[in-house]
Amino acid sequence: MAFFNTSAEDRYKKQIQEFLFDGETIEHVYGLAIDFVALTNKRLIFVDQSLFGKETGVVSIPYSRIDEIGIVKDKFWSMSDKIMITTKHDKHELKLLQGKDEALKFYNTLAKYIC
């Protein structure tokens, strides 16, 4: 049961280190279904780990490049809410599975970084 007692930051901190620049620091990490998203002092890093494959995709978005963010809240009890991140070239949808409070925290924190 230790898996459920550790925070997303503790679980993913080691994995995210390889993607950081010199002087870049992790400020927040949020676990997703199979992957995670990190907010650093410079950018958002979304790590997409394939469930059955050996591939890991990494998307890095500087805060200044984020045009719009949105949150879709389920009216009924749900294990996740959706966060939509729009850039000039793409749209990303994240499902935070740590409960509704985590999605709202993520949304509010990211909104502070981009506004």
What does this structure look like?
The structure is a single chain. This protein has 115 residues and is of the alpha+beta class. Helices cover 25% and strands 39% of the residues. It contains 3 helices and 7 strands. The protein has helices at 2-5, 8-17, 100-114; strands spanning 26-31, 36-40, 43-49, 56-62, 66-72, 81-87, 91-96. A 4-stranded antiparallel sheet has the order 1-2-3-4, with helices on both faces. A 3-stranded antiparallel sheet has the order 5-6-7, with helices on one face. The longest helix has 15 residues, at 100-114. The model is unreliable at 1-5 (pLDDT under 50).
List the keywords.
single chain; 115 residues; alpha+beta; 25% helix; disordered N terminus
Largest sheet: 4 strands, antiparallel
**Span between termini:** 39 Å
Count every helix, treating DSSP H or I runs of 4 or more residues as helices.
3
> How are helices and strands ordered from N to C?
HHEEEEEEEH
What's the count of strands? Answer: 7
List the helices and strands and how they pair.
Layout: H1 2-5, H2 8-17, E1 26-31, E2 36-40, E3 43-49, E4 56-62, E5 66-72, E6 81-87, E7 91-96, H3 100-114
Antiparallel strand pairs: 1-2, 2-3, 3-4, 5-6, 6-7
What's this entry about, in short?
This protein is α+β, with helices and mostly antiparallel strands and 115 residues long. It is 25% helix and 39% strand.
